Amino acid sequence: MNFLKPDSPVMRLISKIADILVLNILTIICSIPIVTIGAAVTANFSVAMKVVKDEDNGVFVPYFKALKKNFKPATIAWLVLGMAIFLIVIDWRWIIQSGWGTTPFVYRFLVIFISAFVWLITLSIFPLIARYEMKMMEYFKAALILSITRFIPLALVSLFMLGSVIACIWYARWFPLLYAFCTLTSMYFLCLIYIKAFNRLEMKQKEGEEEEESEKENIEEAEETEEVVEEVKEEEIPETEIAPVPANASIMEEVSHAQAVKELHKEMEIDTEREPEEEIKGNKLTKFIRTEKKKLKGLTTKQKIGYFVQYYLPIVILLLVFIVGVSWFGHDIYINHKIILKGGMINCQVSDAGRKYMTDDFIESLGYTTKQRTALLSDTNLDFKSDIDFEERYLDISLRAQMATGTFSYLLIRDDAMYNYTRDDYFTDLNSLIDINKYFEDDEIYYGAEDVPVGLKLRIDTVRKLGLSEDHDYYVVFGYNTGEMKTQNDFIGYLFNLDPEA
After folding, report:
1. Is the separation of the CB atoms in 492 and 435 below 8 Å?
2. Cα 21 to chain center, whole Å?
3. For every residue of 333-389, which 3-state class applies, written as one string?
4. What is the span of the domain harbouring residue 420?
């Protein structure tokens, strides 16, 4: 089990992953006061770049040292950028409130350009603070140059980060795992980009310094040569006696070198021969355990804890994250296998009895017990009005993402919100589920885009069973999911006391 050794390629890779994950967690914790975001991110880059370069010096102690060391410049840079970001958010809010189409093109273009500009500066300035000591204006200039020279790789990483945000919104139940993977991947590639850029910069600086030094040396040598020539011209060079070199000097050097090599080999053979018999016995795992015990032997408790934190704590954390992730994934698969119907509500709130009617009672009507199958109805009433306020826009985007990805098998929607959500192609054409003309009047059907029937109006007895207010009409619409089509068909029959034909 050579891969279990701390210096094996597999363990080094696992250690890197664990270290970067731990760094990201520390950064989140240290960013909670908001003002400290710049210092936290700078410390993250400072240690992460060393981790990627295999400069294994631990995580916790170096992180807090870097946090303390770079706190002042990183905080100043963050405050400046934070103000710029705040103004950009205000601009985007105005564009959203005014409407994308009604906002002047020049204004939209400027906001997009400035947003990208500030974003790239924000990505680049904190690694520079982590690596170099400069004046604040020099940091911003260097960040601008770095953003331009590394525009393509930084743009690609930025697109990946944007895709990560979208994925986290669409698949909210997998947010922790998606967030861990995306932040880990983003940080790793950003570190590679900056390490390569910094190495190239430092190499050019070193070459320039070497050229300057060589030029100085050449000038000095030329000056010394001129002085010697002048002295030779003025004085005669006396004859000097050359000390005789022993004929066997080179032979003696070769003999002594060969003898040293032989002695070194002999010592290595003796060490191998002296290896105790118990060290040879056992498999690779037991040998690895014995080796680690030897390392810990004679260490104090504090030193043992430091050794564990240095080499094994990140790996233990990564393994725990992996075990929790696998367990969560398995549990999620099991629960999802039991769920045959998942509903949501927009602008309506059912009673407890109505919730039971939509879930447990429906399951029993199909001949199942609640242990065998499950039907869910969202606990949260998604309240949206016809004119959506800006504060609700984020929830609206999240809801649309969930509808587009098939999170809901069906939705109960109040009449005043139907237009907002049925004008887009989110829901199933009811003709594919049931012969609607056979069971429903035209005024009971809601037609979406291109006159496609997408909603069925709940009848008064169903509205009362659900405990809904009778001041409004309510519709049920069905999401795209061919695997649940028969269940949706059965659900229509259950709600409207029908036996619909597929």
Report:
1. no
2. 9
3. HHHHHHEEEEEEEECCCCCHHHHHHHCHHHHHHCCCCCCCCEEEEEEEEECCCCCCC
4. 339-495
Residue 468 within any structural domain of the chain: yes
Q: What is the DSSP letter of 246?
A: P
pLDDT tens track for 146-197: 999 889 989 999 988 888 887 777 666 677 777 788 888 888 889 989 998 8
384: domain CATH number is 3.40.190
* Same domain membership, residue 419 and residue 294: no
Q: How far apart are CA 217 and CA 222, in angstroms?
A: 8
d(CA 179, CA 171): 11
Residues 394 and 479 in one domain: yes
pLDDT at 253 over 80: no
Proportion of the chain in helix, strand, coil states, percent, rounded to 5? 70, 5, 25
| Number of independent structural domains in the chain | 2
Strands 445-447 and 339-346: unpaired
- 366 & 462 share domain: yes
Distances 143 to 151, 191, 194 between C-alpha atoms, Å:
11, 15, 11
Residue 282 domain-assigned (yes or no): yes
Tokens of 241: 């006696």
